[in-house]
Amino acid sequence: MQSEESPASGMLRPGPILAVLALGLFVAGVAALWPLMRVWLEGLGTLQLGILASFVAGMFTGVGAIPIFVMRRLSRELEDSLMGFGAGVMFAATAFELVLPAASIAEADFGSAWAAALVVGIGIALGGVLMLALHRLVPHEHFVTGPQSGADPQKILRVWLFIFAIGLHNLPEGLAVGVGFGGEDLSDGVALAIGIGLQNMPEGLVVAVALLSLGYSRLAALGVTLLTGLVQPLGGLIGAGAVTLMEMLLPWGLAFAAGAMLFVISHEIIPESHRCGHEGKATFGVLLGFIMMLTIGLVLD
Description:
single chain, mainly alpha, two-stranded antiparallel sheet, about 0% strand
């Protein structure tokens, strides 16, 4: 494995600068459209918002795969940077749109900061434990680390192992979007949906390119990538439905989704982005994604 070049020289390349400019334009567009979007979205119920937003976020997985029609491969350096960006977005979304609202609501419900910390802590732990159980029980395969779980991957088509792996990523993300609309602040749910959608785009590109490398056609790779995104509306339905039926579940649901997201970030995304000697590029992506998500949250508030 070759050592990574110095971070300073990598940051002088035009790629990162163009990426920052493009993300800046995206945030400016979100800020300009938000007043009109808010008027329309305020007329929808929690369940409608959760399903719609998680569906749109899931479809961004397919949008991210579109470049495969003009390219067949990604450099490992770029792939790790994109994965780092997705991890940064998810970190910020988890902290600002899930954990902090959960703590605030729990403290208002129970009248104690200690009780709020206990509720949020238990919820985060439960979310992480569930994802750990799913990763051990559901056969799946990652593009870098290979087959996972104790199941025999030879009995399942390899493409389905990849679908299961991305589905395990997307389910907690959809759940987070659905639960995010259970609170009083519409912008929390919208910011989550935008952040998850942004994270889905590089993930969709990585998945589609990997499928091309396995011999799948461009249309088949796009179709499989879109299929993985359909898991998110399911998670959105579960999350929004739970907090709609029982309002008292909201802080628990937010914390649970946060725990599931943290598990995916720590157990899957960051380790995979650090396996080929591009830790600096991946970390720069994390920082950029975190700043991007923070900015979107502030713009929508």
